[in-house]
Amino acid sequence: MAEVPRTTDGDGTPVPQRLLAAATRLFAERGYDRTSVQEIVEAAGVTKGALYHYFGSKDDLLHEVYARVLRLQQERLDRFANADEPVDKRLRDAAADVVVTTIENLDDAMIFFRSMHHLSPEKNKQVRAERRRYHEQFRALVEEGQKEGVFSTATPADLVVDYHFGSVHHLSTWYRPDGPLTPQQVADHLADLLLRALRP
C-alpha cells in the first residue's frame, strides 16, 4: 500500500487524519446531517478535492469514523483470543479492553450510533458484518469457557454477549471524563460483572 502523502504545511499531519479529526469534531458538535462538506474541509484546512481524493463522500467519512475504532478493537480482540492464557483471563481482558477503547473513542462511538442510519445501504451492511465478526469472536470465548466447564451454561452465550455490549453501547450516554471513575476502573467493574454472571 502506498504511503499516505504528508502535508507540507501546519504540523505535518497527513490529510486523511486532518479530515477525520475535523469531521469527528463537527459531527459530534452539530450532528452528521447538519455538517456540510464545506465546513469539514475549512476546519481541516484542505480543499474539497483533497476530501474527495481520500474519502469520496461525506458518507465515507462517517463510515471511517467508526471503522477505525472497530479495526482497533478487532486487532486487540484477535490478540486476546489467541493468547496463551486460560479462557476466563482471555475473556476478562477482552471484555475490559472493549470498554476502555470505546471510552477513549467516545465521540466516534456516539457519532456512529446516532448517525448510522445515514450510511448508504451498502456501507450499513458492511459495518454490520464487521460488528458481527467481532461479536461472534467474543461469543466464541464464552462458548469455549462453557464447553470447558469454566463458565455456567445457564445463560446462552448470545445473551451474555448482548448483555455486555449493551453496557458498552450505553457508555456514551453517561460516561464523563471528569467523573469519579477512570476508563480502566469502569472497564474492570463491567468485566468483573460479566465474569460473575458466568460463574458456574
From TrEMBL:
Residue ranges of DNA binding: 36-55
UniProt keyword annotation of Transcription regulation present: yes
InterPro entries noted in UniProt: DNA-bd_HTH_TetR-type_CS (IPR023772), Homeodomain-like_sf (IPR009057), HTH-type_TetR-like_transc_reg (IPR050109), HTH_TetR (IPR001647), KstR2_TetR_C (IPR041490), Tet_transcr_reg_TetR-rel_C_sf (IPR036271)
Gene3D superfamilies reported for this sequence: Homeodomain-like, Tetracycline Repressor, domain 2
Family matches, as SUPFAM superfamilies: Homeodomain-like, Tetracyclin repressor-like, C-terminal domain
Alphabetical UniProt keywords: DNA-binding, Repressor, Transcription, Transcription regulation
Domain called HTH tetR-type: residue spans: 13-73
Pfam family, one: TetR_C_24
Matches recorded under PANTHER family: HTH-TYPE TRANSCRIPTIONAL REGULATOR RUTR (PTHR30055), HTH-TYPE TRANSCRIPTIONAL REPRESSOR KSTR2 (PTHR30055:SF175)
Name recorded for this polypeptide: TetR/AcrR family transcriptional regulator
Taxonomic source organism: Streptomyces rameus
